[in-house]
Amino acid sequence: MLAVRQLSKSFSGPDGARVPVVSVAEFDLAAGEQLALRGESGSGKTTFLHLIAGILAADAGEVRIDGVGMTALGEPARDRLRAEKLGYIFQTFNLLQGFTVLENVLLGMSFGPRGADRAHARAVLERVGLGHRLEHFPRQLSTGQQQRVAVARALANRPRLVLADEPTGNLDTRHAGEALALIREVCREQAAALLLVSHDEGVLGQFALRRDFAELNQAVGEARR
Amino acid sequence: MTQPLIVYRSLRQHALSTLITAGGIALAAGLLMTVWRVKVESQAAFTQTSAGFDAVLGARGSKLQLVLNAIFHLEASPGNVAAADAEAIRRHPMVKTAIPIAVGDNLRGFRLVGTVPDLFTGVEYAPGRKYAIEAGGRLFAADQREAVAGSFAAQRLGLRVGSVFRPFHGLNFDPKAEHAEEFTVTGILAPTNTPADRVIWLPLRGIQTMAGHDPKAATDVSAVLLQLRTPTAGFMLDMLYNKQGNRLTFAFPVGAIMAELFGKISWFDRVLELVAYLVALVAAGSVLASIYNSMSARQRDLAILRALGARRRTVFGAVVAEATVIGALGALAGLAAHFALYAGVAGLIRAQTGVVLTPWAFHQVLVLCPLAMTALCALGGIVPAVKAYRTPVAETIAPVS
Lengths: 225, 401
Hints:
The structure holds two protein chains of two kinds. Chain A has a five-stranded parallel beta sheet with strand order 6-7-8-3-9, with helices on both faces. A four-stranded antiparallel beta sheet of chain A has the order 2-1-4-5. In chain A, helix 3 packs across helix 4, helix 4 packs across helix 5 (about 145-155) and helix 5 (about 145-155) packs parallel to helix 6. By secondary structure, chain A is α/β, with parallel strands linked by helices. Chain A contains nine helices and nine strands. Chain B has helices spanning about 1-15, 15-50, 65-70, 85-90, 120, 150-155, 205-210, 230-245, 255-265, 265-305, 310-355, 365-380, 380-390, 395, and strands at about 55-60, 95-105, 110-115, 125, 130, 145-150, 165, 170, 185-190, 200-205, 225-230, 250. By secondary structure, chain B is of the alpha+beta class.
């Protein structure tokens, strides 16, 4: 499902020198698999997800999603692939504040291959327990509800891979547990692979498949050298 | 649905700045259309208004003053024409109709003009249109102290058939300069949409023999309005009176003389046009500034859209579309502003000159200006759209961990 090979990314430092942030030799995730990556703040795990999602262009290496080489594509094709194959759940939810709950989900769908399917968007929102909040704006929802909107939006396009970046970081323990269970459950229902990054041991402990991003990312060591 | 939804929500989110910006565009578009139409249509109206006459004969002086005085009932008379001269032109073989007029009095600011009944019975003030008296009235008798009021003057002064009034001496209203003679209104002219509507018409003798007027000039007239038998007659009479003679002025053709006036004040039109263009540019600039200023607040939204799969050209298009919609809303409101403004200006011109401009008449500027304003605003949207296009997704969307 997801294959990463020799992927690297560096940024310019204050002195103009390139600072390596991500350097991953090999990483794979099978279809429907759910894996948690442990990583401290500043370890480059968000950059790693951005590279997989094609939001950032890699300096070198390859990312293949469902057999398609993301890194070899031009930007418009990367955007299309992201909309078709990927769902992204952000730590800060990144909901569009001026749009209703239903519109947030519909907009996410509109860039995908199936377009804005209102009935499906409603169904997904009902699945996450927000069928009664369709016309509400994000600011009118609790934090937990906002996270559920983000989950619905990420999954509305029936993605093959869901990337979740500290998805419970802004939630209290009870809501975090509920949100995580929901994400995993819905991914399972849709047979979507899930790659979650977190530094929360409570979250990581719930995954049978776990990896330490510091071990995976050789750039951490390079930068420190 | 994506772009319309993005545009709609963005406009809703920034409703106040949208309204203010669209309001500025509306004023600019309204002003531009009004300046343009007033310029074009007033010029057309003034140069086409001739009250049905080809030429005017008057005292030696400015042709423009003569035409303004005799046809438009503005300005003072340049002087008198002796009865013998008026009679000579009346009998001239090249002259089809000669209507003498005498001015010099007013009724509370509305001009009194003495003339002969032939003006109302024999002259078409516009092709196929003759003066008509409204039901219940009749034309004045040439030898009585009677009057026929133009429709606009009657309405403003509250004159009806049977109303009695005393004229005031001079062309400007002076309450102390009231004449002793009383005139009775015998009829109200049906509206003609010409300067004649602002006039109260008296028998020629009524004006000439009013107490206080110079008895030596009791047979003189202010001007003679002329219809010629052929267009070439005008050039021959021009030669006779203007080049060979030195006592009288022959103003011909009426339209060309008015066109000369507009030629002389064309610099003013150009200044007005320039101001209107500048206002339009400033309005388009305000669209640019308004959307550009909101970009920093919206960059996160745009980055989120990009992260969801929106292409650069989608967000670019959404911003340009937003500017276009603001422009179109402003241009539409501009049409309303224009009609209100134009109705006001047309009312003013009618009140001052009697020349009628029709606010609801179609003019191509009513289509071109809104389209141009909308296009200009779309152009103004390109700068913020480029900023949207360049939004760095990863840096904007989330802190890097």
